[in-house]
């Protein structure tokens, strides 16, 4: 069996009286899309924060590519190879599309503290950035300001910036949110090809996309993973049916 | 070292502390409710002092002077809120800083235009002249003692206002969620004008009270404003309780630092050198206190931890 | 609408042409005014790296301006009184050499910016504004209460410092020095804005979570920007003190910090030449309105208020329109 790329092990987080994560354990194996679903308030956002490093866990550990990254913040985890996209687009709005993508390539290159040289004329960075834009279908928008983009185009750019990082694992927070049927279909097709490059931990509300894409699905309820398995396993799981449909497990 | 002298300095520190509270309470309230940083708060302090000095000078009544200070500062505050400040709530902090910096220029030079460059003097009322006898044979100026008590009374009144009255409840609700209380039918723009005028009146009161022990002049407000900022950073933005604790802390640190540091250095250095270093260090004491708070609690002692 | 690079060239040429004309017409005071404008512009160019590019509203840049001023004052004071600055553990003497003074000013201001920045950048927004203001005021009071270098009265320098090969006592050569310093400052800030660091810094201004997610530490970016910014403003301080042959605690005053921000806004935020236009405009207004009324600051306040409320792009915004995102 291959080593998982991303491991979350017994991670807990409490906010006052609320236990947002209770000993969550899941992993992400090479080549797979692992979807995380759960009803609202199940603790998905917290788990994303714990994985991305914006929230420090009370207990448990997170490992990325065999390395313990529990003590690292979001910056450190990004450098260790985690490519995150946000649920609500989080981009430099005054910059152009290309500049946003170059920012990602620059982060990947580790040459951030260079005070000289025109970054937008750096062949290496701009080519990486342009290639990522090409892949998500934004090549013809490169010179537009992000503030002038449509919602769907910003979602595409989110993914493109994550691509420029050439991460070891993707963490995608509802990439389909707000995309029309067509956008969802094309992003679904794209993510399908992406899993070969790096596995994706996918948090998504669009169940059609989840069941179409996911190799495995984990269901989070009240801060706990109540089931992990293939799409069919999950469909049949009595605990899941109870959580979602209120059906009696018996 | 003399215990009586020390107690006197502690009282001086308290007096500075309650004055800083009157300034910082308004600032922190305005920030907490409207999200506005107001550099012109020191101008309202100055307006209070000038109004008090002018009216007391003309009528011979200190009480009328105080009333004029409150009225003038509150009126100036309300006027500025309606004409300028209101347009700044949705702007970024840079715009707020610049616009209120512009207001300082207008107020300061306008006052200089009206009153000239020479300082005015505000006389202490006769009833409060001379020393009051305290236990342990301590004599302390009656007026300063009155300031401390008046400041504490205002502080208590403010706590009651915020905690118990309808207006206070609305102010706290405004801090929590603007849209919600607007949706509940509270006239939010009236509430903002009221909060701003209240803060202005407190600053004007402080200016008038201090005006009787210092000279009343243009530019008197800004050093106090900056001290009030130090207080807010230490206490935590938006917290009246934090402003109170930090005001007293800053007042005592500053006063006792100036008194004790030269003495402390004198125990192991030659006196003139000790005085030099002690005085210079004392002038930085509260800023060092602020830096220390920043290191351990960047959001202030009573600020919401992030 | 004029293209911004052309407008910038015109501004730079005008700032050179006016004193050249004054030299020909025998108007030394105009040269001094132009020098003053160039030096204040340099101070604001420094601030603009933190403020315009990094979004760091520092209301305490007078700290670095004053440190630069005192670096000049202290070194020249020891040179003119023939007393060493310190004897133990090693001898340091005063100097009248501008390059040495500038280097000292830059190093001292950088160190101060590193310290103040490291503390202030732990916070953001209003806290940052209030804290930088407070640290500036701390240095102001320290300068007042430290009697060795004049305390409240400041330090006078009898003769302007030397620059190899130039007669700095005459107004034009000193203007030329200040003008070149401004040009170098502008060049640096232009290069930085285009650099990888500049892209990251301005992205951090717009969206902190974004830069973290691509593995960049915003604190480190901002602290670096703050130090560079302080260093340039410190150099301006040394020149300003040399222009006046006088340094006093007022160089540390909060009004000074406020004025630097005013220059940037009058000219246009996030514009390379915004501080230059703003500082020139300020010096012209100061001279012209100041001649009309002793209370000219009332009018400046009114103008500033109108610009902030109604004309956010400043002068360059009005002339050149929206800036291009990149080339």
UniProtKB/TrEMBL annotation, chain A:
UniProt entry tagged with the keyword Transport: yes
UniProt cross-references to InterPro entries, sorted A to Z: AAA+_ATPase, ABC_AA/LPS_Transport, ABC_transporter-like_ATP-bd, BCA_ABC_TP_C, P-loop_NTPase
Protein name: ATP-binding cassette domain-containing protein
Annotated keywords: ATP-binding, Nucleotide-binding, Transport
Domain ABC transporter: residue ranges: 6-247
GO terms, molecular function: ATP binding; ATP hydrolysis activity
Signal sequence extent: none
GO CC annotation, single: plasma membrane
Pfam families tied to this protein: ABC_tran (PF00005), BCA_ABC_TP_C (PF12399)
From TrEMBL, chain B:
Cellular compartment(s): Cell membrane
CDD domains (UniProt xref): TM_PBP1_LivH_like
InterPro entries in the cross-refs: ABC_transp_permease, BCAA_transport_permease
Segments traversing the membrane: 16-37, 44-62, 68-85, 97-122, 142-163, 191-213, 225-253, 274-296
GO cellular component annotations of the record: plasma membrane
Record GO biological process: amino acid transport
Recorded topology in the membrane: Multi-pass membrane protein
A single GO molecular function term of this UniProt record: transmembrane transporter activity
KW Translocase (keyword) present: no
Keywords: Amino-acid transport, Cell membrane, Membrane, Transmembrane, Transmembrane helix, Transport
Annotated family: Belongs to the binding-protein-dependent transport system permease family. LivHM subfamily.
Protein name: Branched-chain amino acid ABC transporter permease
Species of provenance: Kangsaoukella pontilimi
Upper taxonomic lineage: Bacteria, Pseudomonadati, Pseudomonadota, Alphaproteobacteria, Rhodobacterales
UniProtKB/TrEMBL annotation, chain C:
Bilayer-spanning residue ranges: 7-25, 37-57, 62-80, 100-119, 126-149, 169-190, 219-240, 260-285, 297-320
Chief location category: membrane
Location in or out of the cell: Cell membrane
InterPro entries, sorted: ABC_transp_permease, LivM-like
Membrane topology of the entry: Multi-pass membrane protein
Presence of keyword Amino-acid biosynthesis: no
GO cellular component: plasma membrane
The protein, known as: Branched-chain amino acid ABC transporter permease
Gene Ontology MF annotations: branched-chain amino acid transmembrane transporter activity
Keywords (A to Z) from UniProt: Cell membrane, Membrane, Transmembrane, Transmembrane helix
């Amino acid at each position: 069996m291959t080593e998982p790329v991303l491991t979350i092990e017994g991670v807990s987080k409490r906010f006052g009286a609320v236990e947002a994560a209770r000993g969550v354990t899941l992993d992400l194996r090479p080549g797979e899309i692992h979807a995380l679903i759960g009803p609202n308030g199940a603790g998905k956002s917290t788990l994303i924060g714990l994985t991305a490093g914006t929230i420090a866990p009370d207990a448990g550990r997170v490992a990325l590519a065999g390395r313990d990254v529990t003590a690292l913040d979001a910056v450190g985890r990004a450098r260790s190879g985690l490519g995150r996209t946000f649920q609500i687009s989080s981009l430099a709005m005054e910059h152009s599309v290309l500049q946003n993508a170059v920012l990602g390539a620059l982060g990947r290159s580790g040459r951030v503290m260079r005070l000289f040289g025109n970054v937008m004329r750096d062949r290496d960075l701009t080519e990486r950035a342009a290639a990522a834009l090409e892949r998500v279908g934004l090549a013809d928008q490169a010179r537009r300001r992000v503030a002038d983009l449509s919602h769907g185009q910003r979602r595409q750019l989110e993914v493109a910036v994550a691509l420029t990082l050439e991460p070891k694992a993707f963490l995608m927070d509802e990439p389909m949110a707000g995309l029309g049927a067509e956008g969802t279909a094309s992003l679904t097709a794209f993510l399908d090809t992406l899993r070969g490059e790096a596995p994706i931990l996918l948090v998504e509300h669009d169940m059609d996309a989840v069941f179409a894409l996911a190799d495995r699905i984990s269901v989070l309820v009240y801060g706990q993973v109540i089931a992990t398995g293939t799409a069919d396993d999950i469909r049949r799981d009595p605990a899941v049916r109870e959580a979602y449909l209120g059906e009696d497990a018996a | 070292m003399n215990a009586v002298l020390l107690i006197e300095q502690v009282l001086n520190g308290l007096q500075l502390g309650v004055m800083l509270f009157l300034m910082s309470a308004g600032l922190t309230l305005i920030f907490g409710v409207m999200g506005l940083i107001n550099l012109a708060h020191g101008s309202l302090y100055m307006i209070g002092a000038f109004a008090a000095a002018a009216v007391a000078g003309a009528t011979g009544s200190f009480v009328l002077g105080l009333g004029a200070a409150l009225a003038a500062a509150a009126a100036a505050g309300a006027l500025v809120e309606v004409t300028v400040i209101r347009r700044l709530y949705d702007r970024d902090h840079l715009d707020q800083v610049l616009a209120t910096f512009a207001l300082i220029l207008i107020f300061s030079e306008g006052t200089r235009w009206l009153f000239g460059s020479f300082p005015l003097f505000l006389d202490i009322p006769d009833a409060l002249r001379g020393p009051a006898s305290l236990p342990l044979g301590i004599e302390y100026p009656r007026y300063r003692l009155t300031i401390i008590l008046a400041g504490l009374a205002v502080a208590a009144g403010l706590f009651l206002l915020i905690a118990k009255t309808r207006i206070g409840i609305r102010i706290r609700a405004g801090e929590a969620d603007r849209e919600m209380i607007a949706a509940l039918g509270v006239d939010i723009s009236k509430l903002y004008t009221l909060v701003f005028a209240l803060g202005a009146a407190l600053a004007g009161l402080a200016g008038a009270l201090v005006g009787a022990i210092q000279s009343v002049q243009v530019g008197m407000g800004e050093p106090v404003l900056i001290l009030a900022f130090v207080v807010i950073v230490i206490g935590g933005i938006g917290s009246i309780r934090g402003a109170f604790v930090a005001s007293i802390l800053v007042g005592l640190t500053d006063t006792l630092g100036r008194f004790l540091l030269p003495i402390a250095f004198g125990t192991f250095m030659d006196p003139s050198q000790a005085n030099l270093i002690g005085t210079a260090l004392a002038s930085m004491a509260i800023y060092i206190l602020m830096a220390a708070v920043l290191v351990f609690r960047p959001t202030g002692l009573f600020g919401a931890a992030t | 609408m004029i293209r911004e690079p052309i407008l910038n060239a015109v501004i730079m040429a005008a700032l050179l042409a006016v004193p050249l004309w004054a030299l020909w017409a025998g108007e030394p005071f105009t040269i001094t005014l132009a020098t003053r404008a160039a030096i204040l512009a340099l101070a604001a160019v420094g601030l603009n790296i933190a403020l315009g590019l990094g979004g760091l509203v520092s209301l305490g840049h007078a700290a670095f301006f004053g440190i630069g001023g005192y670096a000049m004052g202290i070194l020249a004071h020891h040179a003119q009184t023939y007393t060493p600055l310190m004897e133990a553990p090693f001898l340091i003497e005063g100097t009248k050499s501008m390059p040495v003074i500038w280097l000292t000013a830059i190093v001292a201001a950088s160190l101060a910016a590193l310290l103040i920045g490291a503390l202030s950048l732990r916070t953001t927004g209003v806290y940052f504004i209030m804290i930088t203001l407070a640290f500036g005021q701390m240095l102001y009071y320290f300068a007042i209460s430290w009697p060795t270098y004049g305390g409240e009265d400041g330090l006078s320098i009898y003769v302007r410092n030397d620059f190899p090969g130039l007669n700095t006592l005459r107004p034009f050569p000193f203007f030329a020095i200040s003008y070149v310093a401004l040009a170098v400052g502008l060049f640096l800030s232009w290069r930085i804005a285009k650099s990888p660091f500049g892209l990251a810094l301005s992205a951090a201004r717009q969206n902190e979570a974004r830069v973290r997610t691509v593995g960049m530490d915003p604190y480190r970016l901002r602290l670096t920007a703050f130090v560079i910014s302080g260093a340039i403003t410190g150099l301006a301080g040394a020149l300003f003190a040399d222009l006046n042959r006088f340094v006093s605690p007022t160089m540390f005053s909060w009004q000074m910090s406020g004025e630097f921000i005013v220059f940037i806004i009058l000219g246009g935020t996030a514009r390379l030449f915004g501080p230059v236009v703003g500082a020139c405009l300020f010096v012209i207004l100061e001279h012209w309105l100041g001649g009309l009324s002793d209370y000219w600051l009332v009018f400046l306040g009114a103008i500033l208020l109108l610009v902030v409320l109604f004309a956010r792009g400043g002068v360059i915004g009005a002339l050149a329109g929206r800036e291009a995102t990149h080339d």
